[in-house]
Amino acid sequence: MARKQVATAIALSLAATMLSSPALAKTLNFNSQVLENTVSGQVEKWFAEEITRRSDGDLTVRVFFGEGLGKASESLSLMADGAIDMASMSAGYYPAELPLTAAPNSIPMALDDVAQASELMSRILDEVPEVREEHEQNGIRALFFHHLNPYYLLSTEPVEELSDLEGKRMRTWGSEMPQLATAAGAIPVTLGMGELYESLSRGAVNVVPLSFDYIRDYRLYEVAENISLVPAFVGPTGGVWISEMTWQSLSEEEQELILEVTEEALEKDFEMVTAAADEARAYLEQQGVSVEEFPEEEEARWREANPDFFADFITRMEGQGKGDAARKMVEIYKEVRADDN
Q1: DSSP bridge pairs for 178
Q2: Which pTM does this prediction carry?
Q3: Cα-flanking dihedrals φ and ψ of residue 229, to 5°?
Q4: Could you report the per-residue pLDDT of 111-129, keeping only the tens digit for each?
Q5: Does CATH number 3.40.1080.10 belong to domain 151-235+281-339?
Q6: Which residue, of 50, 96, 99, 338, has the greatest Cβ tally within 10 A?
């Protein structure tokens, strides 16, 4: 039986069990794309526990970490099918279904820091109604988006200049990250987080853009010992989503409770993520990982080799009748960066 079918069967079995017992009638099954020990995982754990505690157990959120109910690339259909109630998943895995939402999770070298990414996603959700509309069309509702420390280049061999990426196999996702790899002469390979350790260890990929804390938490330093400080990606990461079907089944009081905890979780997430960067870097260096600067002139060469990601995004969205929304998003991108400089 395929993994998605297994996950669906497990989730449906859990749902049947819950329906047969009044005490478990309001348990929500949450498929998380991250490991429990990551910062995102700890925030999700707190989020679930707080909802359970504040509702006096009347509304329980049960988190299955590490894609316990299915791969993150399956979570959208699992929510739509009613197999799961909630998920943390990156919109970048769904460029066809969530093209507007996926862009901030995929457009590389467009922002400078975590605070900019946080402001960007908040403004896009508030100011571009077409983004929420595509969530509704897919039967899901975004609660909050995790923050993400800058993604540098983890590699099995040192990357000291752009030519070192020539012919290397680089992990990518979404629509734009593969183009970033290609511009550097690398070969893009689409992989989920759970596939990175094995892929690095057997040479299926040589280079992985990732943050210090994710490199630590997924223990990737055991199979790759070089980090080059070129900010390949800075932006929002996976969102915490709830099935619209599940949302509508909740009482107004339960919805208000979830939104209350959501707001606090977003603040906690920012604080924990930003605090994790220096701590994780120190840990990695203690493990013998080499962390080296990437020459500014080499980064400039890479940026010049890239396509115009914003222009391409607008053109692609115009073909889907979403050109105005895309232009508004690009405008917000530029304002966020300008306000911080």
Answers
A1: none
A2: 0.84
A3: -85, 60
A4: 999 999 999 999 999 999 9
A5: no
A6: 99
